Amino acid sequence: MATQTETKTLLRVRPRGFCAGVVRAVDIVELALEAYGAPVYVHHEIVHNTYVVEQLRRRGAIFVETIEEVPSNSVLVFSAHGVPPTVRQEAKDRSLRVIDATCPLVTKVHLEALKFAREKRTIILIGHKDHQEIVGTSGEAPDRTLVVDSIAAVDALDVEEPDKLAFLTQTTLSLYDTQEIVARLRQRFPKIIGPASDDICYATQNRQEAVEQVAKDVDLILVVGSQNSSNSNRLVELAQRLNRKAKLIDSANDIDPKWLEGVSRIGLTAGASAPEVLVEQVSERLANFGFTDQRDLDLIREDVRFTLPPELQSIAPAPRR
Ligand code: SF4
Q1: Could you tell me which of 61, 73, 63, 70 has the C-alpha nearest to residue 33?
Q2: How many A from CA of 21 to the centre of ligand 1?
Q3: 203 CB under 6 A from ligand 1?
């Protein structure tokens, strides 16, 4: 139990926060605003973070869910989560100036879906059916794709050709849950094939592994991220699976002082779409609650960067963050 005089510790794990796909997507919207002027339309939230979206909105980004909402001759950015081919086609038919901020690691899954569809396989896509990424990926082969999000959903699958199956996954899933679902798929359908390499992206894996490492040393884990951020929610679930109290917070204001009662060590991380400024604000608020021993733990090295689309490279030759 914490006492009045006890030094309370905040361990901020690294890697945390922005991944390479999010850096690229946010850079694309900012550069498009610089290059073409406001407004710049963005299909869906560019990344699932309230703060990031609000900052870009203030600078002139307009977020839409359908192509119909975009006026003719406008600049339109596709979000990091990707879009189905129908949306691409609609934008093309409208002759919009499209800039694609789909994360290259999501594009990789789209290409795998196309390959499996060409092989006339039914694709079992592991992920959350309403998530924008799954809407995009399943759109590559809608007649051949079945989405599952649990072992129960695998058990309920009814497929015509069990020997012609392939599975793919959303990039931001729980490593544990996905392993279990894939194991059940292989058990039910021994001839199912999967992608050449794991679809769960490096950023999701690294942030989960970092939480796993710190969990044993803390009483509470705080994850900075928005409610609709898949990878942030998976970090909370992982901590809870490891029997640690864990909370998802969109900002420092979300911290309920009651959570800190009896807590002397907190682990802090941030989902792949949460900016560092929010981590700093959370750290400041926790210092006010007595967590003055604050340290960064470098647990896994991360140095991935993605190149910008060609149309923006000339105006941003140097890395922006
Ligand atoms: S979380 Fe992974 S897949 Fe999503 S944008 Fe970041 S790197 Fe890309």
Answers
A1: 61
A2: 5
A3: yes
